Structures are given as C-alpha cells and as structure tokens.
Amino acid sequence: MSPRRSNPQTRPALVDIAARLLADEGPQALSARRIAAEAGSSTMAVYTNFGGMSGLVREMVYEGFARLQDYFSHVIQTADPVADMTLYGRAYRHNALTNPHLYAVMFGGASLAGFSLGAEDRQHGRYTLSTVVECAARCVAAGRFQADDAELVAHQLWTAIHGLVTLELGEYLIDPCNADRIFEAQLISLMVGVGDTLEAATRSVQSSRKRLRKEIEGVRPARDLARHA
Fold first, then answer.
1. Which of 28, 50, 61, 96 could be stapled to 103 by a disulfide with Cβ–Cβ 3.0 to 4.6 Å?
2. pTM, rounded to two decimals
3. 3-class SS at 79?
C-alpha cells in the first residue's frame, strides 16, 4: 500500500490556523486537537503534514519567511536602486501587516507553548536578507550610499524597520506621530544616514510609494495563489 498523501491545501491552512490561535488566544490554544478542529479535519492531519506539533511550529517560521520572500520577489530592479531599497522596506512592512500572526512567530515575539526552535530554525529566514544585501551593493556601486559594507547596511535597515513595524503591530504609534508618518520619514532618514543626499533620497522614497500598489499590494504572492487555487 502506498503512503497516504496529504491534501496540498491542508498544510498551509493548518499553519495559518495555528499561528492565528497562538496570536489570538496564546500558547494554551496550541494543540493538535484544537488546530484540527478549527481546520475541520482530524488530528492525524497534523502528523501527516508535519510529523507532530514541533514540526508545525517550525513550519510557521518557515512559512512566514516564505511569504516575505514572495513579496520581495515582486520588487522590480530599476535604474534607481535606492527606490528599490525603500520598496523592500515597504514590502517588509506590508508582509508584517498582512500576516501579523506569522510575523510574531518568525522573530520569537510569541511564546511557543513549550515548543522550542533551534538556532538553525531561528536563522532560517536569513536567506531573505540576501536580496536586500544585493540591493545595498547596487546603491553603493551607483554612488548613492557611501558605506562600502553592503551587508552591514542591510542589517541596519532591517533592524530599524523591524522596530517600527513591531511598535505598529502593538498599536503604540498613534496620531500625530502615526505609523504612516513615521515610516515615510524613517525611510528618508535611513537612506540619508548611509550616504544618500536628502533631495535624492526624498525622490526615491516618493517613487517607491507610487510603486507599492502595483508591485506589492496589487499582487497576491504565489503561495497565496496556490493556496486558493
């Protein structure tokens, strides 16, 4: 008898449900029985797809970064690398606001009900940063960034935007200094901080804002398309 094959749509559904339960109700809701009940399936689905709850918790991290990479992949490389760079920042924020339940798990912001993640799992998502490093190198080559360490620049931008997004998700940023206002100012300041001029940085940030809807917001990531096919 051949091994039982799982439904390809069940796997991402279980990941979403588990992450939402964790975000909404805390780690006490994270059980195979509860997740399966929410999905309308049996507990066996958790074991068939992930080998158990530990595998499901790990997959939440992997899925979160996969969705981020999906958005990054829609950023079109243009003659303005700084505009491309700020669009990556917008994509990062958009992914977090679209998938807040997964975002908390990706970076250890949610208790995992006793299920631990190893160092390898914690560092898994670093492959998404390589795209930003490559863009930073283009900015340096174009003479827009003075810093010559593209990897350090990418980390600086990542940590700054991550901090803003975390505060935004926690609803700490309110009028008159709301998240939108701070984010736009932050993008300009970050670009100037690594060597761009205020005038050029402002133009690039404005350009990326116009591109956001077409390249990021208006495109459903490939994993989403597969899940709803």
1. 96
2. 0.85
3. coil
